[in-house]
Every structure is written in C-alpha cells, then in structure tokens.
Amino acid sequence: MVITVKFYSFYQNLAGKESIQVQMPDHSTLGDLLDTLKELFPQLFPEAEKALFIINQKAAVRESVLNDGDQVLMLAILSGG
C-alpha cells in the first residue's frame, strides 16, 4: 500500500522535501511507518519521536493502523507562553 507523508515545520527542513510516498506492507501501523522513515531519513530522529502525527485529519498514535492511500502529517508540537 502507498502512504503519503507530509513534513511540516523543521521536519520539512530535516527531510529536505515537503512530502514523500512510501510503500508499506498491508496492516502496517504508524510505528512501522516511523521505522521506515528512520531508515530513509535518519536525520529526522530522535526528534520525529516527539512529533504530532495526523492520519487523514485525525490524531494518531504509534499503534494506529494505516490503510492504502492514507495521508500522514508530521507536525512539530509547539509550546509557548
């Protein structure tokens, strides 16, 4: 199955691109996708472990199951005061 990953904020700078399409096995989870991204973009880690992930406009966790055609957003969590 094909998953589109869109990088935002400094993740985009670290990856060197706005988005990629990743081929993943059926029944893969967000955690599996992160393992693949770690191989493709080692410079994203360990920072990417702290990212907020959105799958098809819904917040996701490592155990979230992916489906063909899903769009995964990698966002930086910001705080301030």
Automatic annotation (TrEMBL):
InterPro entries from the UniProt entry: Beta-grasp_dom_sf, Mopterin_synth/thiamin_S_b, ThiS/MoaD-like
Protein name as catalogued: MoaD/ThiS family protein
Originating organism: Calorimonas adulescens
